[in-house]
Structure formats: C-alpha cells, structure tokens
Write the structure tokens for this entry.
Amino acid sequence: MNHFLDIHTTAPEDLRQMLDQGLAMKRARAGRPKGAPDDDQPLKDRMVALIFEKPSTRTRVSFDVGVRQMGGQTMVLSGKEMQLGHGETIADTARVLSRYVDLIMLRTFEEQTLQEMAEYATVPVINGLTNRTHPCQIMADVMTFEEHRGPITGRKVVWAGDGNNVCASWMHAAGQLGFDFTFTGPSQLDPEPEWQGLVRDRGARFAIERDPVKAVEGADVVVADTWVSMHDSQSSKERRHNLLRGYQVNEALMAHAKPEALFMHCLPAHREDEVTSAVMDGPNSVIFDEAENRLHAQKAVLRWCLGL
Ligand code: CP
Ligand code: NVA
C-alpha cells in the first residue's frame, strides 16, 4: 500500500507510471458515457472515503466518478459534520475509518493533519489539497501538458502570481520530472524557500524573475491561480490584489511567451483578476482539459495506492 501525499515524496518512476497509465485509461474509454464502467474493475468491492474540510467541485466529483468507473464505491464526508470537526483526534479518526474503508482521500488545512492521518491510517491516504500543496492537481496538469505537447522534461513552465500550494506542487514536479520552473510574482508572495531549495537540489532549474514579461520569454506553459486561496483570510484580499495586479495573465503577456505556449489554471478562476477571459477562453487555454484529467490521473493514483 502507498500513500500519495506529495509529488516530491513519490519516486519519479512511480509518477511516470501513473501519468502514463492515467492517459492510457483515458484513451481506453474515449467516447463512452461518463457513467459507463471501465473494462477493468480494479476497485470492485472497494470503499473509498472522500473527506472535505474545505469546499470543492473538481476534486469531489472527479474522485467520486473515477472510483465508480473502476467499480468501487465512495462516501463523501464533510469534516464539519464528522466528530473530527468536534474534537475527535485525527489519529483516532484514522484508526476508525481504516476499519470501514479501503482508502481515504483528505482535503484539509494544515499539512500536519494529513501527515497524522497517514501515520495512523492502515489504508492508503491521498492528499486532496492542503494549505501547502495540491499534488493531484499537478498530476492532471502534467498529463494535460504531455497530451498536447509531448514530454515535459526540459520544458519551461512559468508561474505568475502567488507562490501558493498549487505552485509548490508544480515546483515538486519540476524537481522530480526535470523541467525548468520560473516564478514571477511579488517578493512578499514568493514560494517557500524550502521548495526553492528542493527543486535545485534535484537538479532542475528554478528562477525568480520579478518582471512578468521577461519571465514568460520562451515559456512552454504559463500558469495562474487565484490570488486569494481558501486558507487565506478575506482581510488579506485587498493587499494581495494590490501586490498581484501587475501579474495578471492577459493576451499582452501571453504574446511574449512561445506562440504555442499553453495557458493553465487549476480552477476555480476569478475572471479578470489573475487571468482575463480572453486568455481563459483563447486558443492556447487547456483549462477544461486539466479539469477533465483530474479524473484520469487520479484513477491511476488510486490504483498505485492500492497496488492494483
Ligand atoms: N482545482 C481544484 O482542486 O478544484 P476544486 O477546489 O473544485 O476541487
Ligand atoms: N490555491 C487554491 C487552489 C484551489 C483549488 C486554494 O488553495 O484555494
């Protein structure tokens, strides 16, 4: 059994195997109705708990549909409605849930909560986003890039905006899969120094470029995300917007990237803040492919976790 907690703690060969398997599974069921089962039913008789302590559309629906396509069953639980939200410890919750279900997917706030769940659960645990990372998203994003443009190794990915949880998992992928990663944003919102060191230690190129126009030169992908994440206080909104306004991804900025550069965003997006509708709905945007590929990438992650 394997936990899928982060990209930098998962071996590159395992990441590669999951990316390739996810894409193969997508191709194998092309054109079928969403509710049709896969030919393979590796999750037959398996029960999966999906726990959310924060809102979700994509993570919730893609995991639920993916498990069902593979023959398994799900239960979607809200942290607030569980005893977890009323003082029961994570460790006890993990031990109890492990008696009922075959796998736990958790979206939470503190990374520590996820770590504790994994430590005490006797079934695999998947990170469905914490304040610090969002690995499932980046599995889908790398798959999406490769589907459109071939191997990501050696390419240039540019992140514009807040050095947040999604940015962190992109950086982990740069280190594990060997692509260049450039961050452009204000120094106040730089990615954590620990992640900067990690990318470089693993031999990938990491750069910070304050000028967004210079940053996107030669980019194969430009990525944006919300300026205010779910764990950020609403009172920080104005300050964040002021800091980030100059890093909006718009057509003028995209014109400085490679002509074939893709635009990516994990969604939900705030149109006309971090990105304009012209870019989101433009010819180089693959945002809805990313959303779809959450489903296919996570199906491979689920199989890997359960050794199926
Ligand atoms: N991208 C993503 O994780 O979306 P949700 O918050 O809707 O799950
Ligand atoms: N950075 C965002 C991602 C949402 C999927 C957040 O944490 O709210």
